[in-house]
Design goal:
This protein is mainly β. It folds into four domains: 14-67, Immunoglobulins (Immunoglobulin-like, Sandwich); 74-160, Sandwich (Immunoglobulin-like), CATH 2.60.40; 164-251, Immunoglobulins (Immunoglobulin-like, Sandwich); 258-293, no CATH class. Helix content is 1%, strand content 49%. The protein has one helix and 29 strands. It has a five-stranded mixed sheet with strand order 9-17-16-12-13, with no helix packed on it. The mean pLDDT is 91.
Length: 304
């Protein structure tokens, strides 16, 4: 029911409603009663321009009223179960129509999706995932609504994992001479990849180095083991990826001769010995009272 408030006038104005220059009847589904426009039931075809007229002997005034009947959305293109590629943009479509532009909301695992650096919702309702992650392989739901009602559709996303190292091997690695060492390399993909190591310069691995399921195992590290090694991971659908590391062999620092606790009388000479070995050769410094001793500062009383 829509009321038309008539302008003041003497004599009191007569009021009636028209649509498309045709007077609204006083009976029927759409009728006028005492200046009111009455819809007993509303259908989509009632959308349009209605005009309220007020007239007396002094003249006439009129006022237009636009009425839009909201309809429940209908599907143009439902969301579908989708396979999206990891690290690439992914799209989920949710297209609907109604007399009023539907409002579209997306949910992921039941939680509302807000637009940010990863998610964008287009004007037509399409959801764009700017960079698909493995954990996007889950349930998405689109809800499209108008004041007349809503429709929704739930879909599952399957993420096609890219061939990648998990994690990539550290590019610089140092191992201890004469020790047993294992360097690991792991990878995942749509199909389980085969993983193996090679020497980057093309030479064969020495007999004391084994290569098994991504593990580069040195039974006893030698100085000649220093160099570049490449981990290769491959499967049929996705090809091959490589990661190269630079291996340094070091003799970790150890003391050959440690200084001993010593009792010294005032005015006498005290000597402390300290020798260390390693590769590269370690630099030896002395500290006294939490301060590195500077030869120039204490010479000639203290000599190093």
């Amino acid at each position: 029911r829509v009321t038309c408030v008539a302008p003041r006038g003497i004599p009191e104005p007569h009021i009636w409603w028209e649509r498309n220059n045709v007077r609204i009847p006083t009976t029927g589904r759409v009728h006028q009663a005492a200046g009111d426009l009455v819809f007993t039931t509303i259908v989509e075809k009632d959308t349009g321009i209605y005009t309220c007229h007020a007239m007396n002997k002094a003249g006439e005034k009129k006022q237009d009223l636009s009425i839009t009947v909201a309809t429940k959305p209908e599907w143009v293109e439902k969301p579908k179960d989708s396979q999206l590629e990891e690290s690439k943009p992914g799209y989920l479509h949710c297209l609907s129509k109604a007399s009023l532009k539907p409002t579209v909301n997306w949910f992921r695992n039941g939680n509302p999706i807000s637009e940010d650096s990863r998610f964008e919702i287009a004007e037509n309702g399409t959801l764009r995932i700017n960079s698909v992650e493995v954990y996007d392989g889950t349930i998405f739901k689109c809800v499209t609504s108008t004041p007349a009602g809503s429709i929704e559709e739930q879909v599952r996303v399957h993420v096609l994992e890219k061939l990648k190292f998990t994690p990539p091997p550290q590019p610089l690695q140092c191992v201890e001479f004469d020790k047993e060492v294992t360097i690991s390399c792991s990878a995942t993909g749509r199909e389980k990849p085969a993983i193996h190591w090679i020497k980057t310069d093309g030479r064969s691995l020495p007999a004391w180095v084994s290569n098994n399921s991504g593990n580069l195992h040195f039974h006893k590290v030698t100085r000649s083991d220093a160099g570049n090694y490449t981990c290769m991971a491959s499967n049929g659908p996705q090809g091959e990826i490589r990661a190269t590391i630079q291996l340094t062999v070091a003799v970790f620092i150890s003391f050959k001769l440690r200084p001993d606790d010593t009792t010294v009388y005032p005015g006498h000479t005290a000597m402390f010995q300290c020798q260390a070995e390693g590769d590269p050769l370690p630099q030896i410094q002395w500290k006294g009272k939490d301060k590195i001793l500077d030869h120039d500062e204490f010479s000639p009383r203290i000599q190093i």
